[in-house]
Structure prediction request, 363 residues.
Amino acid sequence: MHLFDPIELRGKQIRNRLWLPPMCQYSAGEKGEWLGRPNDWHYQHYASRSLGGFGLVTVEATAVAPEGRISPFCLCLDDEADVPAFRHIARVINQHGALPAIQLNHAGRKASTGVPWEGSHALGESGWQTLGPSPLPFDKELPAPREMTHEDIERVIGQFARSAQLAVEAGFQAIELHAAHGYLIHQFLSPVSNVRHDEWGGDFEGRTRLLREVLRAVRGAIGDLPLFVRLSATDWLAEYFEEREGTFGWTVKDSIRLVRELDDVDFWSITSGGCIHAKIPVGPGYQIPFARRIKDETGALVGVAGQITNATQADVVVYEEEADVVYTGRVALHDPYLPRHWALQLDENVPWPHQYLRGREDS
Prediction:
């Protein structure tokens, strides 16, 4: 396999294996009728990445309820009236040849914060009550969430299904659930953040129950469309033998077991960390070993991100079967046409729009 070989998921043909991951733009309306809805910034951002040649373009973390937004400026899809704005994004992505996907999320205890360039601080009086599996704050800078009741949990499951249904109505052709980076589903998975003693906590079965139920509900809402999960392979405690509150957190072994048991998931986007502050040795391709181990031990289709910053590096990941897909996010923020540039470097015959042929690097 090579980076620019096509891949098929549930009958959906995707033109290559270089995909755009969901990266929050923090640019949606914060109140009124435009609360959580995409605007011209989002249309331009996603259209240009599709035109730039990515195989699949994933719209950023989109909350399934207003209280699930990371910040007041995050997307939210929870009402029929939101659909037209999202439909325009799905249409422009598809128009330029990429498969339109969307990531659905609930931020849980990491909600109600400011935008990153202002420090991601707690909003205080201008914010809202956050929710979590247990009343444990992410850190001393953020308030403790309210421990979710059984009714809260059932409502969130329904919200994920409702948002997925609306996303399909808007024209998205793949749905990704965010179970990583310390947001609500990850909070339930990890024993560091979930210390419940009911059916939603405790052992592996209890802590994974929310994800299982969300998957069941979402599958019922979307039918036979591809269903992805973004998963933090580890909380990074086990790698450093660092015990927190009597646990090493969520581990790679947990991830492997989960992937084996959830055979209705079509694709796993492998990342790591985010549930607690931990030592993470960030460097070129630092998450590739997790993706390869999960792929090798489960046979699942996986994608990987994490400082994969040049064409040769990305192509080797796919050629060596360390992952089936490479996600490139940060580099693509300043180069929307990254796939086309990398294709030229790899001597791949990727068609350019006629309007842009005069600007090709080899012309």
